[in-house]
Amino acid sequence: MAGRRDAGERPAGWEAGQRRYIGELLAADVLLIAVPMYNYSMPSTLKAWVDHVHVPGVTAGFAPGELPLRGRPVVLVSSRGAAYGPADNPADWDHGTAALEVVFGASMGMTPHRIVAQLTLAPDLEVLADRRDEAVASLEAAILRARELAIELG
């Protein structure tokens, strides 16, 4: 297949970039990640960064002693155009923040906090017009949660 890399071959500068990303992550007191929902998942650029910093034996592991980020807070701020809560049919369609909670929480030992603003498309889509008040309330709740976490994690 044209353009295919040989096993183990990486693009130029890949390892230096990975070392820099991991160094920045290890130096952070709190990790803040913006997670807009794109097609029910996280943006591809965020996924690429996660793939660089989630390294078994370096930042992730299987025994508690192997987790240099254990207990460190990670705040996942998510915006969603529609609603994905318990009362909505696609409540489990958010494959972005849920996946990041597994990666950073379960695998890397960090303490995840989630802030969500949903129905962000309600002001612009007639099909969501009856949920515009929910959209405003969701944004207000997200802002309030962000303020609380800023104080708590300060």
Automatic annotation (TrEMBL):
<dbReference type="InterPro" id="IPR029039">
    <property type="entry name" value="Flavoprotein-like_sf"/>
</dbReference>
<dbReference type="InterPro" id="IPR050104">
    <property type="entry name" value="FMN-dep_NADH:Q_OxRdtase_AzoR1"/>
</dbReference>
<protein>
    <recommendedName>
        <fullName>Flavodoxin-like fold domain-containing protein</fullName>
    </recommendedName>
</protein>
<dbReference type="Pfam" id="PF02525">
    <property type="entry name" value="Flavodoxin_2"/>
</dbReference>
<dbReference type="InterPro" id="IPR003680">
    <property type="entry name" value="Flavodoxin_fold"/>
</dbReference>
<feature type="domain" description="Flavodoxin-like fold">
    <location>
        <begin position="19"/>
        <end position="140"/>
    </location>
</feature>
